[in-house]
Design brief:
124 residues, mainly alpha, 4 helices, 2 strands, elongated
């Protein structure tokens, strides 16, 4: 059997990649994908602990399946929100939005100002 430390190093690496992507990317779709990568690392951890602690008990595997179902619903919700935001602002950059108590996404600056800043800084 593979030692537990090796089984936990892979999810640690995957979670780190997802965290770096969530913190460094500016496009909302890439941020959502990074969250999915992080949650997939959690699923791998659950399966590893389930196989290591009690090989005959399927509770960890069932919990991992439920989390995968939640991941699917999160992807669908994120794509729906991204589609709605793109219809309103023609951009999916994270810097255009902020979280507030009354709204899911609120426009911070106009799209024109953001496009001018992008052109000035040379970013795409």
């Amino acid at each position: 059997m593979i030692p537990l430390t090796i089984l936990l190093l892979l999810p640690l690496l995957i979670f780190s990649i997802g965290l770096a992507g969530a913190l460094l990317r500016r496009h909302i779709i890439f941020v959502l994908f990074s969250f999915e990568i992080m949650l997939s690392a959690v699923v791998i951890n659950l399966a590893a602990f389930s196989a290591y602690l009690d090989p005959g008990d399927p509770r960890g595997d069932v919990l991992a399946l439920f989390i995968m179902g939640a991941l699917l619903s999160q992807i669908m919700l994120g794509v729906a929100i991204g589609h709605r935001v793109f219809e309103n602002s023609d951009s999916l950059r994270v810097s255009l939005f902020e979280f507030s108590l009354g709204h899911f996404w609120e426009r911070r600056r106009s799209v024109g100002e953001e496009k001018e800043e992008i052109e000035e800084s040379g970013q795409r």
